[in-house]
Amino acid sequence: MTRISSSAFVAVFLLAVPCLHGQASPATIAGEIGKLRSLPDQERPAATIKAANEIGSLPPGMNKVELADKVSQRVTEGDQGRGALQAVADALSKALAESPLRIRGSEPPQPYMDLARLARYEHVTVSLDDPVYKKAVDILAANEADIAKADFTLEDLNNKKWTLSELRGKIVLVNFWATWCPPCRAEMPNLDDLYTHYQNEGLVILSITDENPSTVNSFLEGKNYHPPVLIDSDRAVNSRFHVEGIPQTFVFDRDGKLTGIAIDQSTQSQFLALLTQAGLKPQ
Fold first, then answer.
1. Residue range 5-11: mean pLDDT, rounded
2. Is the per-residue pLDDT at 135 higher than 60?
3. CA-to-CA distance for 97 and 110, rounded, in angstroms?
4. Span 27-36, mean pLDDT?
5. Which of 14, 38, 16 is nearest to 28 (CA)?
6. 3-class secondary structure for the chain?
7. What is the mean pLDDT of residues 93-103?
8. For 217-222, what is the mean pLDDT?
């Protein structure tokens, strides 16, 4: 996931932690995490699990929390499988159990929110017994209730207005993205294929960005991307959907009920699973 805004909770000095002989250093692990996006899809799960296990072996401290949180934001990009997701959740849970963070303001620090997202939307097992984590879980549930009631009207690049509540009878996939976001760009061909294949069966895909229309038009030139692209210039809809990182996807069934959420880059099979839950019948 690419963060739109980050919460500064602790300064991290990767070289400050001594390592045992044979143990990967924080700097080495950070380098491994930084390379995950460049790996072939078939190699990423094993590399992610390796990084998570190395993080789990680090001594307690903020370096460990930061690295565990960073890899938690990479494991949800694409379909890396249950093993990678659980290994990352275990590493982050362990890091937070060893080095709890305080709430600053009204919302838990980002690592707790990221762990709660893994539990709620990727269905991993989290055993962390921490009131801050429980608060993060409650916030996600409250946000989801807001999103289920959300409505909006936005214009697309052709100045056509789209209103979510007027699309009842359709299955609607709302995708938040940006031209500068690598995971967003990676999933666009999957969205385009789904839209062109299932449009006649009542599927609507709305791609929402807060960027300048000229920037978006320049990016899309020659790409033959078919779903309507809507401009949320003041980020009001992003805020209504509690979008803090992109891509994020929300699926509504024909009755307008929120039936699925994807918190990061999805594969075509992952999108199809969400759409099937909403009543689409893949062919």
1. 42
2. yes
3. 15
4. 97
5. 14
6. CEECCCCCCCCCCHHHCCCCCCCCCHHHHHHHHHCHHHCCCCCHHHHHHHHHHHHHCCCCCHHHHHHHHHHHCCCCCCCCHHHHHHHHHHHHHHHHHHCCCCCCCCCCCHHHHHHHHHHHHCCCCCCCCCHHHHHHHHHHHHHHHHHHHCCCEEEECCCCEEEHHHHCCCEEEEEECCCCCHHHHHHHHHHHHHHHHHHHHCEEEEEEECCCHHHHHHHHCCCCCCCCEEECCCCHHHHHCCCCEECEEEEECCCCCEEEEECCCCCHHHHHHHHHHCCCCCC
7. 96
8. 97
pLDDT for residue 236 is more than 50: yes
Largest CA distance in the chain: 62
My answer on whether omega of the bond before 213 falls inside 30° of 0, hence cis, is: no
User: Above pLDDT 70, what percent of the chain?
Assistant: 94
Q: According to the 3-state scheme, what is the secondary structure of 183-218?
A: HHHHHHHHHHHHHHHHHHHCEEEEEEECCCHHHHHH
Output the CA torsion 138→139→140→145 (10° steps).
90
Confidence tier at 105 by pLDDT (50, 70, 90): confident
